[in-house]
Amino acid sequence: MLPDAQGTAITPAPAWHYSADPALEALISRIRDTYPPQTPAGLEGFRAFLNVLGNPQHHLPPVFHVAGTNGKGSTIAFLQSALEAGGKTVHRFISPHMVRFTERIVIGGREIAPDVLTALVAEIDAAAQSTAAGRGLSFFEFFTALALTAFARYPADAVLVEVGMGGLLDATNVIDSPACAVITRISHDHMRMLGNNVTEIAAQKAGIIKQSCPAVLGPQVDAAVLDVCAAAAARAGAAGLYAAGRDWHVTQTAEGFRFQSAQASFDLPQPALCGDHQVLNAGTAIAALLASPFADVARADILTQAMHNVRWAGRMQRLDTGVLADMLPAGWELWVDGAHNDSGAEIMKTQIARWQAQDAKPLHLLTAFKARKAPDEFYAPLAGLFASTQVVDFDMGAPMEPVHKLAQRLSHAGYADVRVSESLLAALGAILAAIPPVQAAPRFESAAGGRILVAGSLYLVGHALKINGADT
């Protein structure tokens, strides 16, 4: 155990991955063992299984189907906030979760209840074991089928569905007639499965664009993405492609930002989510609303409320209270961010520059990285920005980059004072132990102190939130 700033002993987080409820933890762990994570060859087998279930994907409220590399979750958060501010009820399916597995499936604005989840797991499992198509399901397909079944049974005005990976061959792409297909910023990620360059990756993401349905394209770094998506929309016979920078625009203002399109113009406050990039995600959500059957929700008063209300855990989020936050002496800040690819690194670099212009407090990195991704693309843009780096070893039940290998890579890349810590608590304790005595005093000027950033892996960020006791 480690002491917090007041000297109180801190107990490490319990060893669960899916739920603090032992029965639910055991249930989901069993499903993971029975239907392991894998990449199916296509959608034919999954469609056959959904047919056994009565094709719930054909009996849903209007669906916003969201793909992209960065900004999917935040765009969904803005959509949910706006729809709910407009009096609509919303179902939501995302992955992965930050702290609790039940975050993945939201029914009518609330996380799925444990008893409902348990009953649905039993039902889907029984159906899967009774048919050849079901016995070949992946873990993600199993819970996609479960979510679609739940969404077809419980009333709501809209459904928000996040693509798991890619788009064209993703299990969520059984949704044939979305109210709007939304593609957020595309960059390099999952290249082993999606393609060797942004153009190939964009072609996979554009697979969610469907006949007679509108599509919205968020701001892109690579101009080729628009060409790929425009061609895909034309082939599919989509009901229009509404692209950022061409059909709609967002610009920063002194009070927040302005959204402009041929349909509407809004002056809105800065979103509650941290970072200049969030106005781009907000703009993408507004464009999607205007293109969808919910255009009436896109009103200045409703959108203003949505900007104030929006919440999304683990995206440049400051932890002000909780177990980890309470370990910090005065003047120190703890932030978590799920960025883990090149685009996320550039966004993070912009935020770090803003911090440096604000007060130049030293910044320390706590990091880990998932295996089979591209660590150099994430870490290279951030080299030289941290006073120290702790590579965290932790059990997440997912394949992670070996900590000593990652530490060596970061040292060679120019990161300062790189060390390996056996846990997140140990990493945080090591940084705090190095604080000069004058800074470790109970009170000192706010200009002193420093910032600690947990980043590089959504799994690590979720682990931090779980330890901190955050309510996502």
Your description of this structure?
With 472 residues, the chain is an alpha/beta fold. Helices cover 38% and strands 16% of the residues. It contains 17 helices and 19 strands. The strands form 4 sheets. It has an 8-stranded mixed sheet, sandwiched between helices. It has a 6-stranded mixed sheet with strand order 14-15-19-16-17-18, sandwiched between helices. It has a 3-stranded antiparallel sheet with strand order 11-12-13, with helices on one face. Strand 11 and strand 12 form a beta hairpin. Helix 1 runs parallel beside helix 4 and helix 8 packs parallel to helix 9. The two termini are 25 Å apart.
Which sequence of strands runs across the widest sheet? 6-5-4-7-3-8-9-10
**Helix share bin:** 25-40%
Strand content: 15-25%
Which regions have little confidence, pLDDT < 50, spanning 5+ residues?
1-8, 440-447
Q: Give the helix tally.
A: 17
Please tell me how large the radius of gyration is. 22 Å
Assign the structural class, choosing from mainly alpha, mainly beta, alpha/beta, alpha+beta, or little secondary structure. alpha/beta
Quaternary structure type: single chain
Distance N to C terminus: 25 Å
Mean pLDDT: 91
Number of strands: 19
Largest sheet composition:
8 strands, mixed
Shape call: globular
